[in-house]
Design brief:
By secondary structure, the protein is of the alpha+beta class. It has one domain. Helix content is about 40%, strand content about 25%. The chain contains three helices and three strands; from the N terminus they run ββαααβ. The chain has a three-stranded antiparallel β-sheet with strand order 2-1-3.
Length: about 80
């Protein structure tokens, strides 16, 4: 049985949560990872750990934002 994790997303003082395994979360956030990868090739589209997923989500959000500093923050 795979371990379940919760990823929290904060934007403009509002927080939302998404729970699931690493594979489910990667599929859920695939668009964020894909758009970030299109701007920055260092964004990993298939992370294997929760720490790597959070790091790549934040890197992807910053890479695809207009000014390079996103107002969206992902954390566990």
């Amino acid at each position: 049985m795979s371990k379940s994790y919760t990823v929290k997303r904060t934007r403009r003082n509002r927080t939302s949560e998404t729970a699931g395994t690493i594979d489910e979360l990667t599929r859920y956030f695939s668009y964020v990872l894909l758009t970030g990868h299109s701007w920055n090739n260092k964004v990993n589209k298939t992370p294997k750990t929760i720490k790597s997923l959070i790091l790549n989500l934040n890197k992807a959000a910053d890479s695809s934002s207009a000014n390079g500093c996103s107002d969206v923050v992902y954390f566990q």
